[in-house]
Design goal:
4-stranded parallel beta sheet, alpha/beta, Rossmann fold, Double Stranded RNA Binding Domain, 4 domains, single chain, 19% strand, 257 residues, globular, 10 helices
């Protein structure tokens, strides 16, 4: 990854916005949508403790100068249409409150990010936010039912997956959270050995991709491509096959064909 995607909470916080015109108005709508308090004066915003700044000057020299001054004051800066001056970029946003899906290209093409977001809009159900809120309300119940984090994660993975009790693409899944929790259905576990047909992540089967995304441990041959290993969860344990492999949960062993 060339950027680390983060969600920055700015509700009630000052955010510096410099510049005028359509680009500045677009940034203003974005800041206000997230609940930020817009400050148009640089010094005032710095004194108020702003952490983020957006610059939308038409004059490139002015934009660069303000970006340097703000960065020296400790702020993270976004300069419209100048990715080389940006500490962060703004993604195209799919909103299913409280679910947010951000599509970014690192400033390479805002148009591509927009089209990807529109395609996802057609795929994801409007009720996704309701399901997220129902799961939030059930959080304490899940902790009581599965006291270990790994057990909760596996149970939820199985429920939300395609065909699961809470399949996120199925209408009305939010209303079934209580019944699912009462059923106490356990998640998947076991050891799965997979022989890769190639080292191209595009050739992964749906089953292999799903198992990698759910694995607690990934044991792999030395020649397995990093692009394939990156499909596993960031917190999954990674070890070389042939060595000592931790047991428990979902263990995926990847071997070169």
């Amino acid at each position: 990854m060339q950027s680390l995607p983060l969600f920055h909470r700015i509700a009630g916080q000052p955010v510096i916005l410099l510049g005028e015109g359509d680009a500045a108005e677009a940034k203003q709508r974005l800041i206000e949508r997230a609940g930020g308090k817009i400050v148009r004066d640089m010094a005032e915003g710095i004194d108020a403790g702003a952490r983020l700044a957006f610059i939308a000057h038409d004059n490139p020299d002015m934009a660069q100068g303000d970006a340097i001054r703000l960065r020296c004051a400790g702020l993270l800066v976004n300069v419209v249409d100048r990715p080389e001056l940006c500490d962060f970029t703004t993604p195209s946003i799919l909103d299913r409150d409280p679910v947010l899906i951000a599509v970014g290209t690192g400033g390479a093409s805002a148009g591509l990010a927009k089209i990807l977001r529109l395609r996802l809009e057609r795929l994801l159900p409007q009720g996704l936010g309701a399901l997220a809120r129902a799961l939030e309300e059930a959080r304490e119940g899940m902790r009581a039912r599965w006291d270990k984090v790994a057990d909760r994660r596996r149970a939820l993975d199985a429920a939300l997956d395609e065909g699961g009790e809470l399949d996120l693409f199925r209408a009305g899944s939010d209303a079934k959270v209580g019944a699912w929790l009462a059923s106490g259905e356990e998640g998947q576990s076991g050891r799965f050995e997979i022989v890769l047909a190639s080292n191209d992540p595009e050739d992964l089967t749906l089953r292999t991709a799903r198992l990698l995304g759910q694995a607690d441990v990934v044991a792999h041959d030395a020649g397995v491509a990093p692009e394939i290993l990156s499909r596993a969860r960031a917190d999954a344990v990674r070890v070389l096959a042939g060595g000592e492999v931790p047991e428990g949960g979902i263990v995926v062993v990847l071997r070169r064909g």
